[in-house]
Hints:
Elements: H1 44-55, H2 98-101, E1 102-105, H3 111-120, E2 124-128, E3 134-138, E4 146-150, E5 158-160, H4 167-177, E6 186-191, H5 193-207, E7 215-225, E8 228-238
Parallel strand pairs: 1-7
Antiparallel strand pairs: 2-3, 2-6, 3-4, 5-6, 7-8
Amino acid sequence: MVPTIEPIPVVPVEATSPNANQGLARDPEPPGIDEAPDLTEPRLQDTLDALMSLTSTSDALLSDETLDADNQPGKGKGLGDSRMAGPGGDGVVERVPRWQRWKFRFEPESLADYARWLDFYKIEIGVLGRDNRVHYAGHFSGGKPEVHVGDPRKETRGYAAPTDGPMPALTLRLARKANIAQHGSILLLFYPFDVESILWTMEKKYAGDRDVNTIRQTVFTVKRSGDRYEFEVVGQKYF
């Protein structure tokens, strides 16, 4: 059972730009694309664009260094940012989208332990396919994983990149076990709304009176107690 926590409203992220770059169009390539050749597969950008439109960002699975000032949107090869200036306010226009600023650090005891954590929170592994579809897998600890295919434009859940510690390798192993890894090279973890609400509440509580737009990164760890798993904020970085 997912641990209960008194939630605060999760404010939707609006498709606006905090800096109002007033460009001609959204840059079709994320900043730093030259440093990320694995994102240049044919037609894969179409899939990424569909997911990016849900979070109003043009960054995709880049390292933490891409959050530096020299790598902000509008300084690449694109035409700028067509989004109008946002209304501001806490949690409406997020300078760093949640999927990019939320980092998970989990040191599971085994692949089975990692699978149990995913199933505990109903988190699915999604492979962004070369066919511009998302290939999902879940329910790993119950025997044969359940798989399905979806349109990225219809995805409404939060997601994060497994980028820390053993998580990338374990995620890839589970994707191979579910026979979805061959569809693409980009893997994401899709989590339901109640998990996003928990993470948002914990982030806000840790930040105190800080505006969400001053948060550059929030790092969560996962702790196991018996058959339960709980998130804990272990650090934040600010602009």
